[in-house]
Amino acid sequence: MKPILGAVLIGVAGAAQAVELTLPTGAHQMITRDTAQDRFLAPVGVFADGDLPNLVVEGPIARSAWRIEVADLTPLQLIAPLRSQLEEAGFRIVLDCEAQACGGHDFRFSAEVLPAPNMYVNIRSYHALTALRGEEGGAIQAVSVMASAASGASFVQIIQAGTDAVETTVQTTAPTPLPSGVPVAGPIPEALAGNGHVVLSQLDFESGTSQLGQGPFSVLEELARALQAQPEMRIALVGHTDNIGGLDGNIALSVSRAQAVRERLITQYAISPDRLEARGMGYLSPHTTNTTEAGREANRRVEAVVLAQ
To answer: How many other C-beta atoms can be found within 10 angstroms of the C-beta atom of residue 62?
Structure first.
């Protein structure tokens, strides 16, 4: 099993002590939705005979969803460390199932799931867990976790509910934003300022796909810091391909690659989506010749183009 690093600290106030849950390094919060007084139907059994057994828990509810940019983590690899820490914190596991054993499609659409694209559940590859702490007839705290593996990324949803106040503190791995207007040195900001565009070199895409590698990519960190330092800057991310294949397919591929870079800047570096556009040119704007392998490799690129500064 791969080592699980990086912390998401979820504290339950009152008599109970904080529960420290661990997600992989590179986990990025997609959404949080906390309510002071609400009702949560915590699944306590698998879907069977047209019904999903649940326990009604009232009080403060803390909902969050996380995306992990690791392609080969299984739902069990995500769930197992969380399960162990919940048990160590005094929770008892009342539901622990995966995919078809949970009830497949029916379980997924009967249980509460945060909306896409913040949370994605692959019907063929997910794991559900519910843990309870407290006595029946008294104060009950519930933690419901759902983990899912999709192509190129994994998703985890954590819902906490209980009669005691729930506070959520997140330790993120994103770079610390720079103060507005502070100049940033380096080739990326210099090229953006001087030329109005720059090639984002050394990005790793699988051949023929739009799947951006795990990284980290120093070129994206530098671009993000330049954007953080100049909050009025807007850019277009423009994908380009070599001339192998038809135009329509290459344009679609170039757009998808630009969108993958845009998503990484949003999720990993907290750049506002309003400041980023994704476009694709296919093979219509080559950087150099397509008659050699080296030339075709150079033509497969994503550029950042300044729209406003």
So the answer is: 23
Whole-number Cα distances in Å, 154 to 2, 122, 190, 223, 266: 14, 10, 35, 25, 16
pLDDT tens-digit profile, the chain (309 residues): 333 333 433 333 333 344 667 777 778 888 888 888 888 999 999 999 999 999 998 888 889 998 887 656 788 888 888 888 899 888 999 999 999 999 999 999 999 998 877 888 988 889 999 999 887 666 688 999 999 987 667 899 999 988 543 333 333 334 334 444 444 556 888 888 888 999 998 788 766 778 887 777 888 988 988 898 888 999 999 999 999 999 999 999 999 999 999 988 988 888 888 999 999 999 999 989 999 988 888 899 999 999 988
Residue-range domains of the chain with CATH: 7-170 (no CATH), 187-308 (3.30.1330.60)
Which residues are 11's β-sheet partners? Answer: 167
pTM for the model? 0.51
